[in-house]
Amino acid sequence: MTRLRLAILISGRGSNMEALLRAAADPAFPAEPVLVVSNRPEAAGLHFAEAAGVAALSIDHKTYGKDREAFEFHVDSTLRGAGVEIIALAGFMRVLTPWFVKRWDGRMINIHPSLLPKYKGLDTHQRAIDAGDTEAGCTVHWVSAGVDEGEIIAQARVPILPGDTAETLAARTLPAEHRLYPEALAAACRQISQRDKKT
After folding, report:
1. Which domain holds residue 141?
2. Nearest to 25, CA basis, from 17, 13, 33
3. Count of alpha carbons within 13 angstroms of residue 144, beta-carbon side
4. How far apart are CA 94 and CA 36, in angstroms?
5. Which is the most buried residue in 3, 38, 47, 57, by most CB within 10 A?
């Protein structure tokens, strides 16, 4: 089995990145992490990646001012230089431009803390509570030009309990994210491998 070369993009502590790296430590997992990139030099996840033996670097978006494409051009060239075949966004807090999304169309996935198509964007847990929902959860989806609008790969559900706050709901959802993301990444890798065989 050929493993796809995986890059993980983060902005912070990268707990979902940790879940992916742990899953990928199994040689049978269909993705091989080759690079972790953060847009914030202080991101704690960089240290975890290095400790796990994965190349980790920061490309500080602030040095590019408002020129989002110049930042993304640097990221893109870095990924391609590493031979990356699939990207997993794991708490990467940047909205990507259509240019970058098109460059990686069908090869980039994201995890979002809601049951899409509900609650795209931010403050998902509070919005679910305010709406009176009885359940929340997380979604892994292909990245498209529209924020949190790409095709859904997999979802996991968690109950919303009486008295829940955004913080308690987020804490209950996070373990579900850590279970779901490796499973969904594996499914995405299989789709890409099947597609590549046909071309």
Report:
1. 4-198
2. 33
3. 11
4. 15
5. 38
Provide the whole-model pTM.
Answer: 0.96
Q: For residue 145, what are the contacts with CB-CB under 8 A and spacing of at least 6? A: 98, 101, 102
pLDDT tens track for 31-61: 999 999 999 999 999 999 999 999 999 999 9
Q: Are 128 and 136 in contact (CB under 8 A)?
A: yes
* Nearby residues of 57 by Cβ (< 8 Å), 6 or more positions away: 35, 36, 37, 38, 46, 78
For residue 198, what pLDDT is reported?
85
Residue owning tokens 């990924």 = 79
Cα 84 from Cα 67, distance rounded (Å):
24
Residue 194: count other Cβ atoms within 10 Å of its Cβ: 9
Q: What is the pLDDT of residues 92-125, one digit of tens each?
A: 999 999 999 999 999 999 999 999 999 999 999 9
For residues 82 and 34, give the distance between their C-alpha atoms in angstroms, rounded to a whole number.
7
Domain of 13, CATH number, reads: 3.40.50.170
Centre a 10 Å sphere on the Cβ of residue 91 and count the other Cβ atoms it contains: 21
Amino acid identity of residue 74, one-letter, is H
In the chain, the number of structural domains is 1
Catalytic position from the list 61, 112, 125, 178: 112
CA 8, 59, 50 angle in degrees (round to 5)? Answer: 50
